[in-house]
Every structure is written in C-alpha cells, then in structure tokens.
Amino acid sequence: MTDVVVVGAAGYAGAEITRLVLGHPGMRLVAVSSDSDAGRRVSDLYPALAGCDLAYVPHAQAVTLDADLVMLAVPHTAAMPYVPDVLARGAMVVDASADFRLKDAAQYERWYGVPHSAASLLAGAAYGLPELGREAIAGARLVACPGCYPTAALLAAVPAVEARIASADGVVIDAKSGVSGAGRTPSEATHFPSCNESVSAYKAAGHRHSPEIDQQLSAAAGRSVHATFVPHLLPSTRGLLATVYLRVAEGIDTEAAHAVYADRFAGEPFITVHPLGRMPSTREVCGGNRAHIGVALDEVSGTLVVTCAIDNLVKGTAGQAVQCANLALGFDETAGLTAYGPVV
Amino acid sequence: MTDVVVVGAAGYAGAEITRLVLGHPGMRLVAVSSDSDAGRRVSDLYPALAGCDLAYVPHAQAVTLDADLVMLAVPHTAAMPYVPDVLARGAMVVDASADFRLKDAAQYERWYGVPHSAASLLAGAAYGLPELGREAIAGARLVACPGCYPTAALLAAVPAVEARIASADGVVIDAKSGVSGAGRTPSEATHFPSCNESVSAYKAAGHRHSPEIDQQLSAAAGRSVHATFVPHLLPSTRGLLATVYLRVAEGIDTEAAHAVYADRFAGEPFITVHPLGRMPSTREVCGGNRAHIGVALDEVSGTLVVTCAIDNLVKGTAGQAVQCANLALGFDETAGLTAYGPVV
Amino acid sequence: MTDVVVVGAAGYAGAEITRLVLGHPGMRLVAVSSDSDAGRRVSDLYPALAGCDLAYVPHAQAVTLDADLVMLAVPHTAAMPYVPDVLARGAMVVDASADFRLKDAAQYERWYGVPHSAASLLAGAAYGLPELGREAIAGARLVACPGCYPTAALLAAVPAVEARIASADGVVIDAKSGVSGAGRTPSEATHFPSCNESVSAYKAAGHRHSPEIDQQLSAAAGRSVHATFVPHLLPSTRGLLATVYLRVAEGIDTEAAHAVYADRFAGEPFITVHPLGRMPSTREVCGGNRAHIGVALDEVSGTLVVTCAIDNLVKGTAGQAVQCANLALGFDETAGLTAYGPVV
Amino acid sequence: MTDVVVVGAAGYAGAEITRLVLGHPGMRLVAVSSDSDAGRRVSDLYPALAGCDLAYVPHAQAVTLDADLVMLAVPHTAAMPYVPDVLARGAMVVDASADFRLKDAAQYERWYGVPHSAASLLAGAAYGLPELGREAIAGARLVACPGCYPTAALLAAVPAVEARIASADGVVIDAKSGVSGAGRTPSEATHFPSCNESVSAYKAAGHRHSPEIDQQLSAAAGRSVHATFVPHLLPSTRGLLATVYLRVAEGIDTEAAHAVYADRFAGEPFITVHPLGRMPSTREVCGGNRAHIGVALDEVSGTLVVTCAIDNLVKGTAGQAVQCANLALGFDETAGLTAYGPVV
User: Fold this and answer.
1) How many angstroms separate the Cα of D59 from the Cα of each of D37, D49, D82, D101, D141?
2) E-strand spans in chain D?
3) Does the beta carbon of B290 lie under 8 angstroms from any beta carbon of chain C?
4) What is the pLDDT of residues C181-239, one digit of tens each?
5) A301 touches chain B (CB under 8 A)
6) Amino acid C51: pLDDT
7) Which of D177, D196, D197, D246 has the highest number of chain C CBs within 10 A, making it the mutation to test binding with C?
C-alpha cells in the first residue's frame, strides 16, 4: 500500500482528495492536516466521511510524517514552503495549489504577489493534465495539477489548436463555475442569498488562471498566444462548463472539427466526446472524474464552439490529483476513480 | 383608462403582463385569454395574483372584445393570425411573440417553418427595444417586442458597434438564461432534476433568436453582419445574462470603451452602467424592468467584454411590453414599472 | 407626506423596508442608517434599488433626525437603546427587531441574554400582526412586529385555538425557512455549498422565537400553553412555510375545520385560505405581502394540519412593518403594498 | 459473479440501481429494461454512466432472461405481474416498487386502486429495511424494499416506540423530499420554475406511503397504530429529511432518549446517530447509502423530536435494494456500497 498524507485536507479540495484516497484500492491514508481545524475529526467536519476517525494535525506536523505520497490542497503560496523538504524526504508530491503550475517564476510573482521560494523546482514539475500530456506525469516526483478552469478550458481549446484547425489567436473562454470552486470559507460573494438565483461574471480578463491557460495554449500553438478568459459564478454547488470560441481555419466544416476532438480523445477513460448535436451538461459529470465535450460550428462566421463540462472538485481538482498520482506511481490510471457519479 | 386585453395570459410571459397591467395606473384589464386554461380563474392558476378573479376566455373570443390595447403573449406563429383583425378594429397591438420581429418574411419562414400570413405588416411594425430606438415606438400601432436574448445581447453589443469602437464582425454572444424562459409547459429539459445543479449550452449557433440579433446588429453596423450566439440554460428560475465579446478598434482603451456605454445610456430610467470593475448579476435585476451593464477590456488581445443582466420575464418580456405600450400610447414611459424588485 | 427614517437599512430586512417605503404613496424616505456601511449609497449596496442615492448614515445620527416614523431593522438588543428617545421626540416607531415583542422583561433577559433597558415600554407596545389583532395597532406609537416564524406559525395555529376546535396543548410547529431569514452576514451555515441541496433542522425546541409564539398562543388559549417549535433551513433564498399540527376537538370534521379558517380570514386583503385539497407553496407568495393557508385533517388520528406560506422578508418582516405603520398612522392598510409579486 | 437484471432501469431509481450494480464487486449486470426507452443505450440516456453500452430491452424480454437476481424499479402495480414467474425461474427478486410492501391485500387495493394479482406472495415477502429487521431478509427470495419516506420515517420513529420511551399514538411525521423522488417523468409539479425557490406540503394525511408506515410502526408497537404523515416537496434534487414528533414517556430525559437511538443503531455500518446538539442535513448523506439521525427533546411539552436524513435515491431506494440483495444472497452487507458520497 502507498502511504498518503493529505495536507490542507479540511478545505473542499482536500476533503475530496481525502474521500478518494479512502476509497483507493492501493492507497492508505495515514494523516490529514489542517491548521484551522487541527484536533477535529474528519467525520465531525465532514459527516459524509462517516467512519474516518482520523483527526487533523497541523500542516507542519503532517509534512514530516513518513509517506510515499503527499497531496497538497493548501491555498496558493502555502504549498511551496513545504514541497522541497517533502521531496527531499523521498515522498512523491501532487500539488493541487497553483504554486508549481507556471514555469516562469516572474509570472508567478506578478499574479500571486510574492516571490517564488522554490523556483528551482518549477522546470521539473509536471503539469498534471493527463489527457493533454501524460508522458511527463508518469514517473514524475512533483506534479502540479491544474485547477478546474484551466482543465476544462484546455481540454476544449487545445485539440483544435494542436491540429491547426483553428487559430490560436483571439480565443475566447467563457467559463461558468459552481460555488464550491470558491472554497469552504464563507464570504459575501458565496453567501447563499448572494449567489442563489443569480449569475455574474467576475474578474473578467483578469483572473489568476489566465496566465496558466496562456502558458499551455502557447505550448500547443508553438508560440506565445493569449486567450480572453471570463469566469462566471453559477448558482450550483458543483460543476464547471467552459464554452470556448475559436476562429476556424478555412475549409474546416462541422464534421471535420468534430472528428478532431473525437480522434484526439479516442480511448480516453475519462473523456466523452458527444456526437454532433449534443452538448454536455455539468449534471452528467457531477461526482465523477469525467470531462464531457461537445462541438458545434457556426459556419456563417467560422466560429468553432466547444464546450467542456467537468465536476470542478473531481476532474477539476481531487480526481485529477489522484489520476496524476496513479500515473506517477505506476497504478492503473483509473484506480480509485471508477465509481460512477450519481445519475441525477 | 386604457382598456387592455392580454391574449395568451396563462403562460409565464402573459401572466407577468397580466401582473403589470393590474398594477398600471392608467390601464384596466378587461380580459385575459387562454385556450388550454379557458374557464379557470387567474388567481386559481396564479395564486400570486390573488384578487384577480377574471376567468380566461379562449383567444378567439378575446381578440374580438373592445379594447384600446391588445397584448399578445402566445407562441410564435400563433400571433400573426389575430393581429390584422385586431388592428383593423382600432386597437393598438404589442406582440411579445416572434411573429413581427423579422423584417424579412423569407427569414421568418426559414426559422419558424411556416409562411408569414401577415407579411404586409412587417415593414410597419416597430421593434420594441426602446433604449435602442424609442422614436419608432412612439405612436406605433404595432410593436414587436424582442425576447429576452436579443434584448440583453443587443443592449450589450450595439453601443460599441454604433460608436465604431469595435468591429461588427466576429461578435460572440454567450448568453445564460433562467429556466422560466422556456415557458410553462413541462419538458424533459425543464424537469427540476434535469436542470438543477447543471448548466449546458443548447442550440449552439442555431437558435431562432440569432437572425433577429443579426438584423438589429446589422442595422447598427450599417451593413449585414452575423454574430455567433450560444444560449445556455442556468439552474435559476429567472434572470438572463449576456456576455458579449467584441474586437475593439485600435486606440480604444478601457476608459474609452466604458465611456461609450455610460454616455449611450445616460439618463435611461431602466439602465444602469456599472463603474469599471463591477459586473452586474442577474439577482440585482430580478423582478424589476432593468438592464444592468458592465464593461471590461482585455487589453492584451483587444477583446471588449460587455455583460448585460436582465430579468428575462420583465425587461426581457412583460416589462418591455408595458414600456413599449406606454411609449406608443403616450403614457409616461415608466408608468406601471416603477416598483423596485426585491433586494435579494 | 410622512417622513420616514429606516434604522438598520443595510441588512436584508432594512433594505426591504427601504424598498417598500420608496414605493409608498404617502411616505418619503428621509434617511437610512447603517453603522457598518455608513457612507455607501443605497444603490451601490443594493443595485436593485437603482436611483436611490441616499447614503447610509450611522444609527446614532439617524435617530436624531426629524421624522414622523422611525422603522428599526437592527438586530435584537440593538433597538431598545434608541426607542425611548425616538418616541420622546414624537416620532412613531415600528420595530422589526425582537426587543419589544415579549411582554415579560424576565423572559426577554432569559432568551436574549441581557436585561431589557426600556422595560417600561413593553406593556404599551402593540404586537404587530394585524390579522390577529389590528385594534391595538391602530393609533399605536410603538409597534413590535413579529418576525417570520411567529407570523406564519400564529396565522396557522391561532384560529383553531381561538375557536376551540383544537387543543392548545401539544401543538407542533414544523417550520421551513429560506436562507435570507438568517440575514446578510455570511457564515458557515449560510455558505452556498453548505445549504444548497440540503435541508436540516436547527435549534430544535430551543429557538428564540419560541417564547414569542407561546405568548401569543397563550393569549389565544386564555391560559399558558407551550408549542413545540422546530425550524428548518431550506435551500431557497426566500419563503417560509409553517406546518402546524394540532389535536382536533371531537366532532370537528374536515369541512368544519376549514370553515373556521375561511371565516376567520374572510375579507383580509393579504390572506388567502385555499379550498380544501390545495396547500400553498412559498413560491406563490414570494415578493408579496401575503399569507396563504391550507387546511387538512387526518381524521383517523384527529390531527389538524394547517400550513401557512409567507415571504419571510415581506409578510414576515418588511411588508408587515409597513402594514403596521399604515394602521398606526391612518393610511389605508394596503398602501404601498398592492404590487403583486412575480408569478413564478 | 451474480448475474443481475434490472427491470425498469431507465427511471431514476432503476438508473441508480444500475449504477450501483455496475460498481458491485460480486455482481454482473446482464440486462436492463425499459419499455419507453427500449433500444437506447444506458450511456446515451445517462451520460454519467459512460462506458455502459447495454441497450434497454422491453420488460417482458428482460424478465425471461437467465439471472440470479432480478431487481425491479417499475412503478407500483407494474411489478406484481412479473414477480411470480421470475421467482419460479429461480431468480431472487428485490422489488423497489410498492407491490409487496403491504401485507394486507385489501389495503393494497384500497391505496393502489387495483386488486393484487400475486397476493399469495405477500406473506413471504421480506420487508427490506435491514436496520429494523435484517433477519427476515437474509436468505429471502423476495424482498420488498421500502421507499424513501418510510425508510426515513421508520428509522426515526421505531426505536423510541420499540423501547417504549414514547407513545405510539399521535406520532407526527413531517417529511421533506427532493424532487427526484417524483421520478423522471416531467409534470407541472416538477417543472423547474414550479418547485424551485419553493416548498409546499402535498397529499397531507393522504399519501400512499402512510399505510406502509402504519404497518411497520404497528409491528413495533405491538398493536395497531396510525401516524400522521405529511410529505413536502423541497427545491433540491436529492435528499429526504423526516422530522418525527413523539410524545415521550414520563421520566425520559434528553440523554435517555438519545441513548436509545445511539444504542439501537450502534455498529450499524450505514447509520450515524449524531451527538446531542447536532442535527443531520441531507447534504451530508447525499450520494451515500447512509441514514444520519439527530435527537432532541422539548422537555416542557414532553415532545421528542427525531430527524433522519437520507439520500432518497440511495438509502431511500437503490442503495437499500443492493443492501438487501447483499443480505439475501450472502454478500457482505456493505458490498458495492462503500464509496463515500461527495463531501459537499
């Protein structure tokens, strides 16, 4: 069994990682950490995890424990202080924070407001989006998992850009996220009466996930490009839908565009590309580690419309982290992730 | 008092028109019609309208009654048979259906599947979006009110196009609507477990409101243009948000773009243009006849992002119909529409 | 015009009072107060109230302004310090807090944890539930409005108890409230992911509204009685439903029980008693100052089931406050309250 | 492997059974049936079940297939025609419909409107609520699983009645259910705008689950008793909360009442009895086969308040069916049911 420590396990992302590790056939959960909830039991904070009687320990204690795998779900800037030591102790690290996603430490400092304290690790960190590059993840010692927005946006945008059926310039990403993406800390924006029966854009063209999307889209394009990214807050707990608009290359019709996606993701265990005429809903991926994709083409204007639905806390966070850990550690990629989400 | 008949009053749009007419200081509701619910009382079908003891009569009976104003909220193709006679009897008509919105009868037939039976009236029908052209509505005998999608999309897109600060080509409209926009008839798509906790695109680049948006955007551009329009279904009863993406002209910065909207809608009783940095939510317009607009500019890619929030059944339907009737009949434009929506 | 000051206007209750005063034909809003949001404009905090450009002033300033009517929507214990001075200056007071509802100062101290600082005013304060006693309100200088739970519970329970068709002992009140009842301050319990897609009881048999319900139920019974009151939190913003269970007196059948309610509330402008077989929903009263009541009888066990639906922020708070002010000041009881809520 | 056929697999209950069978370590899904969706693939109707490429066959075909276990999730009255033949062929039957729950065929006819066509099987059918009687289920050939309302109501009521700490007379069950309990067929009541942001009672004291609750409560009481049962529809997809009110016996205090529940369910793998002061939410059981229980006592009136939260489609339907099948067939009782539900 692989001994696992989850750091930052009291937040939603960490609790979902906890849940998946508890159900993983090859993993054993040895510790969970939380600074704010240290001393409380998992099943007290999350009654859904009935039977898990581990108590949260402080982060600083958790990172010194013997473990084969340390999964971090602390906020950005809080992961990088721990990672070098954990790696030095020989554990594999899957980081669900933003700390090791950007390759350029200057970009990191610009968007997160502090210098990167472990910049030498950035080059070696694998970007944890298996369907767009699982080679780098297999055998990696440090995987930086993308968050929910980049996951859905990139799965929708990259195949067309890679296949050169659409321009990598002028890409528009209109993303809609459930409220759990904002985490467990109450705020005015996440107060039920504030966001229920409502939808609104926020941080239009200025969200922290934008440089990460650009970095990966540029890699696909082979040159530096920039996408316009506008997130919206939805009145649902879970679910994230990215609707991506790209200018299609001349001569590409609807069937050809669809075929690019169907071919690109053929055989992927966690991706469904719907037939033409069907668009995915976030409901159909809720609770599962899945990404469902729909393709349409506005042939009049030559605008390709690709939507990608994921569960923001599973394929968008915890499921992806486990999937990356599976790849890095040599498990079957789907181990611990085969449970179907609820049908409705 | 202006005697008003509401045709198609048992659907959501018609019931909201009924509600507003009941509260209008210069209007008297003389009849409401429904074929499917004929004989039932308004307060029985809609207990919120307690005290309104009118019973629904069949459409065919309602359109022959003496009235100064006939407001139609029947489905598309069901309004055009009645309108010529009603006009001939001397009543003014506000039509909330799609039947008189498109100027081109061939377009109508293409999108609605039947020939237009009153095509000679199309040229004279005023397009009922007062903030983008109230002159044509004042004194009109037939007003074709746009639906919720075109209202929000056009309020967001037209000012930039008119002012030539953005290209009229390549416009992308990503719209999100509450479920009440689908009307009162149950269906698989509107079944609570189907759409709750979910979001999805539908009729991507193929929705019936697309030609209407193009018609009005082309008028603003002074040439024929086409926008990509993708509607989404939201897990809320009311509210519609259009997020519009336009390629900005060179030399236009964020402040200049914002100023175009602030100036364009200065003094409008029902429109708020938020200061830079603030985007509207659908919650803040729920229940009121308002459109709230936010502006942002992605200066890296030159993409202008404009969001417009409305209540789909008020500014998107019934409120707009009353506003148009006010203009056409010489009432104060805000008569019957001054009640604030709930604060939360 | 009656000059009105709203104290505690930045919370949900105060903002709804603000909204209703703005639309009242005989009232003029002269000031709104908030300590936490002093200096901000109403339309900035509540964009739904577009056009209201008053800025919040501190409470201490607001209560010294010239006003004919001061409406307080501050939290419990925060109203009583202001009320004696405001009354002394000659203004009429409608208090939406709990401070003047209980007649017994010892009870107040027991449930609210502090001695009552204006206990001499308790005897003279009118209990502001017009349909169960409007005589005391007419001409009152101080009205203590009940909150949402007592309003719905008492409208459902009192008629049967008064008419002696049911026992005043063993009454069970199972109440379900939307989240806005918890106010505007974010908390773990009101965080969207906490309460969305969920329902739970809280403070079972120990809620602060319990003594107030008992006080009024005892008055109806003519002796001291106690009801079991269990509130629940619902995944909706607005709406409150009280389901009340009473043991029916022998010989009372379904029709007789229903007749008691229909007769008791006949002619009430804001109450609908549904015919047998129909139970009210909170949706049908949303946004209006209404209470809708349904009656059923379990003839096997002799249990009378009465449900009462209200909008917690209108009939449960702000609308009731305006209704009481209308009665106290000699306006038509329905002034400013005639707007219908949305049909859906 | 146990070969399983799911009859009525296209409805929500059947689809959840399908999902659980697909993940069961000892079961193999050999066929799924639907008359209305015959020919469609499971993954087409329920994209969440991606990878399940079985196509629905008609019921009449499914019941003739070789199977070790036939699980029925057809509507009431539709199961009884198939069961005798299926049993005769040697398969074990778990029936999630109401057809074999009532022991008294006359009662069945009274509530379901048709004579029972297989009444001779009623006496031998085990009532499938393991925590209140798993002995009868072990080894049974026909298990009649209770639905969501009786499951939650009985888990909350029976321990107090069995232990004689509360009267079996005058029990009140106020139950709140998510909309998925109404099934997959759209209707006016389940139309999103009808039930969103709303709560209402329905079939007060006249619901079909009432005789079933009475039957089991009477068994616990040792005499014929009747509980008042009032279901409510909640604006959530899943979740069911039963709030049960019982008159406590003299001398029983809060701790004693709580101890009865804690002792009764000690060691149960799927039940948590919360400590005093904590009440369960439906969110915490969503997606898992769990029942969470909270206990409070109104010591003034001697009213015991017990709430029980379940996921209506798991512990209320499909999970319970699998749990019963496990018991009947000799699997570990928790086989296929160990996956945790989402934490939020």
Assistant:
1) 11, 21, 9, 21, 20
2) 2-7, 27-33, 69-72, 92-95, 126-127, 142-144, 172-177, 200-201, 228-233, 240-247, 271-273, 291-298, 303-310
3) yes
4) 999 999 999 999 999 999 999 999 888 899 999 999 999 999 999 999 999 999 999 99
5) yes
6) 87
7) D197
Give φ, ψ of D124 to 5 degrees. Answer: -90, -5
Q: pLDDT class for B205, splitting at 50, 70, 90?
A: confident
Question: Is residue C12 less than 8 Å (CB to CB) from chain B?
Answer: yes
Residue A206: the pLDDT is: 86
pLDDT one-digit tens code per residue, B79-127: 999 999 999 999 999 999 999 999 999 999 999 999 999 999 999 999 9
Contact D183, D161 (CB under 8 A): no
What is chain A's alpha carbon radius of gyration, rounded to the nearest angstrom?
A: 19
Taking an 8 Å cut-off on Cβ atoms, the answer to whether C281 and D200 are in contact is yes
Nearest CA-CA partner of D151 in D263, D315, D273: D315
CA distance B206 to chain C (A): 28
| Structure letter (DSSP) for residue C252 | -
Measure the N-to-C terminal CA separation of chain C; round to a whole number of Å. Answer: 34
Q: How many C-alpha atoms does A183 have within 13 Å on its Cβ side? A: 16
Look at the block and give the residue holding tokens 């039963």: D242
Is D226 buried (19+), middle (13-18) or exposed (0-12) by CB count in 10 A?
buried
The H or E element spanning position C22 is: helix C12-22
- The residue among A232, C196, A198 whose CA lies nearest residue B239 is A198
pLDDT score for D205: 82
- Nearest 10 degrees: Cα torsion A103, A106, A108, A113: 170
A300 and B226 within 8 Å at the Cβ level: the answer is: yes
- pLDDT for position D158: 98
Reply yes or no on whether A148 is catalytic: yes
Quote the pLDDT of residue C206.
86
Q: Kindly determine whether residue B344 and residue A193, on different chains, have CB atoms separated by under 8 Å.
A: yes
Q: What percent of chain B has pLDDT over 90?
A: 98
Instruction: List chain A residues with pLDDT less than 50.
Output: none
Report how far residue C145's alpha carbon sits from residue C321's, in angstroms, rounded to the nearest whole number. 6
- Pairwise CA distance, residues A120 & A116, whole Å: 9
Token readout for B59 is: 């459409």
Q: How confident is the model at residue B206 (pLDDT cuts 50, 70, 90)?
A: confident
Q: Report residue D11 CA to chain centroid gap.
A: 15
CB contact under 8 Å between D172 and C172, yes or no, is yes
User: Closest by alpha carbon to A143, among A321, A332, A335, A18?
Assistant: A321
Interface partners of chain A (CB pairs < 8 Å, 3 or more) are B, C, D
Residue C26, judged by CB atoms within 10 A of its CB (0-12, 13-18, 19+), counts as middle
Which residue out of D52, D145, D148, D308 is catalytically annotated? D148
In this prediction the pTM is 0.97
Note whether ipTM > 0.85 here: yes
